[in-house]
Amino acid sequence: MNMIIFMFILSLSLSIILTMFNLWTAQSTPDSEKLSPYECGFDPLGSARLPFSIRFFLVAILFLLFDLEIALLLPLPWATQLQSPLTTLTWSSTIILILTLGLIYEWTQGGLEWAE
Known about the structure:
66% of the residues lie in helices and 0% in strands. It has helices at 2-25, 32-35, 54-73, 76-79, 85-109. GO terms for molecular function: NADH dehydrogenase (ubiquinone) activity.
């Protein structure tokens, strides 16, 4: 129990010391050069707040959706050691089938096309 308390106090004090050191040494006087957007050494030509195409966000959401496949299928090697590996195979096949159907649907709807 003493080791847990020691580690808790050590991590808490180290966090506080590092935070105070950062606040103490940080510069709090920004100038106009630091606040201006950087565009390869040239002066900015337009607004830095131009809206992005919604296609970038759709592709990012699709990537996150299909990337969850790894998180869901990662424990499969350990799940084969359970009492019923057939159930594990059934569920993993169902997950892969659903994701494949979603990918086919997005492909046919044109969600993966970059240019129209």
